[in-house]
Amino acid sequence: MRRIIRILLLLLLSAIILFPLLYALSASFFTKVDFTAPAARFLPSSPSFRNYALALGNSHFSRYALNSLITASLTAFLRTGVAASAAFAFTHLHFRGQRALLIALLATLFIPSDAMLYENYITTARLGLLDSYPGIVLPSILSASAILMMAGAYNGIDRDVYDAARIDGAGDIRYILTMLIPLTAPVTGAVFIQAFVSSFNSYLWPLLVTTRPSMRTIQIGITMLGFADEGELGAQFASIMLITIPFLLILALSRRLIMNALSGGVHG
Amino acid sequence: MKEAKAYVFVAPAAALAILFSFLPLGKSLAGSFLRISQSGKVLGWAGLGNYVSVLSDPSFLSSIRNTLLFVVLFLPLNTAITLLAASLLRRKGRLTSIPESIFMTPLAFSLSALALIFKEIFRGRVSIANRILGTDMEWLEQPFTAMAVLAVMGVFLDFALDFILLLSAFRNIDRSTIEAAGIDGASAWTIYRRIEIPEIAGMLRITIFMALKDAVLISAPVMVLTEGGPFRSTETVMYYYYLEAFRSGNRAAETTIAVMMVAFSAIIMSLASRRRKDA
Predict the structure, then answer these.
(1) pLDDT at position B97
(2) pLDDT above 90 (res A89)
(3) How far apart are CA A138 and CA A34, in angstroms?
(4) From residue B187, how far is each of A2, A3, A60, A80 by CA, in Å?
């Protein structure tokens, strides 16, 4: 009895969770008329890849996707690099004001960037970075929790490794790149994935700092492709599926890794 | 010389912290006590005038009520549904990886993609939502139902992460206590309530506080799903901040709300971490 209830609950939850995805998938094959049917449709009347052809044929779509790929990769690399460098200093070196600096960096966790939106917009504008990749990327590079995660991992590395590397004449940067990062690959990977996904999915900031269509990211772009105005809602759903499917594939292929990545930053 | 090297390694992080966290916070704090023109010119001292004018603005007060309603709808629903999902899958079995994967799929959605899908699911009277639920409502055209749809979308945005955190908390519990209780004849329900729930309580609190902070700061989902409508009924505090700062050039509202929200989320976060030490 208990087992049956459990299975029923799981089925119900799964159906709810999957519904928007499955509906979007189905709607991406709808014809124009299917959207205005007197009784809302679950399935397309005459499925074809017309909507996907429309989405892929839209000249803006690929540009938006490319912009997202570039900014998300930049954010991921820079956040990982900045955090690795700071975490190295905090765990391997001693300097005056070390504790105070660490506390100051962690204090940024308490300042939500949403509440700094306007001031950061002004700063970015003053730096002349509106409508540029650096302008999209810069405010989200620093992540105190990334520093915290990486410092935690670096603390676990035997200091003899560092001393040996220095005797061998390896500089600090080489030590970080060839020893620290490979030895703590799961944590580095977690920081990188988190940064990439959150940047790829960010909406509000890229919307504010980009005005030229050629600089827009895909998340803003899909609301502006103009398909809805032309009555081509199906093409809108096709473009949603086109950007969602790669993430579904990544999820399916690296479920364990992502679970560890996401639960790694928070300890109960 | 050796010390100088350390500062070089910390410098990028420190510079970014100053430029995008401390400087804007300082500017907001100072600005909240000054009279500033739309173009950013300082006109004079305002004392608490900005706070008084914002706190007595009916639109701001109604944005607080709207945010509270969102929190009340979203937080219990989100907590209940993530806890249920994690509880059902807490024991790893042969087939548990299937629902696990399903529950992670919302991670693939971005905010704007999800909002566009939700708009279509709840669009007009012939919406698929009405067909499934047997209702006849214009969900996004009425204040309460629009807020309810927003809350459900909030659950979709937070669900996967909270589920993963709770699931790993369940699975990290030391098995020996559970097995010992089982040998002593404790029922599965007793073990769940008396042993497992207390063990994950720390993580549960963290997910609740994180969700609370997200909920209090919600703005982007409002922007894409309802644009604050109908009749400004889903205009939350941070969406009001966005409108005042970027559309109206209201620097008094921008600076004071920024300061108040930093203070508020700092309180939430320090409550969360204080509790963590007790647990």
Answers:
(1) 87
(2) yes
(3) 43
(4) 12, 14, 60, 47
Measure in Å the smallest separation between the Cα of A115 and chain B Cα atoms.
5
The CATH number given to B52-278 is: 1.10.3720.10
Q: Which of A8, A34, A106, A116 to mutate to test the interface with B (most CBs of B within 10 A)?
A: A116
Q: A85: nearest CA in chain B?
A: B9
Residue A267 has pLDDT above 60, yes or no: no
Same domain, A59 and A7: no
pLDDT digits (tens, 9 = 90+) for A121-159: 999 999 999 999 999 999 999 999 999 989 999 998 888
Q: Same structural domain for residues A170 and A221? A: yes
Most confident residue range from A197-206, B54-63, B175-184: B54-63
State the total domains in chain A.
2
Distance (Å, whole) CA A211 – CA A135:
12
Q: Show which of residues 132-151 on chain A sit within 8 Å of chain B, judged by CB atoms.
A: 138-139, 141-142, 144, 147
**A94 shares its domain with A36:** no
Q: Which positions 31-50 of A are in contact with B (Cβ < 8 Å)?
A: 35-42
**For residues A52 and A261, what is the distance between their CA atoms, to the nearest angstrom?**
33
Structure confidence at residue A265 (pLDDT): 56
Q: Tell me which residue in B88, B169, B257 faces A268 most closely, judged by beta carbons.
A: B169
pTM confidence score: 0.90
A255: nearest CB among B10, B104, B110: B104
**Residue spans per domain, chain B:** 52-278
Nearest to B230 by CA among B118, B144, B121, B111: B144
- Nearest by CB to residue B165, choosing from A23, A220, A266, is A266
The two tokens of residue A242 are 């086109």
Does A22 contact chain B (CB < 8 Å)?
no
Q: Over the range B148-180, which residues count as b (16 or more CB within 10 Å of their CB) and which as e?
A: bbbbbbbbbbbbbbbbbbbbbbbeeeeeeebee
Average pLDDT over residues A163-190: 86
> Which positions in chain B touch A77 (Cβ < 8 Å)?
none
Name the residue in chain A with its Cα closest to that of B81: A13
ipTM of the modeled complex: 0.88
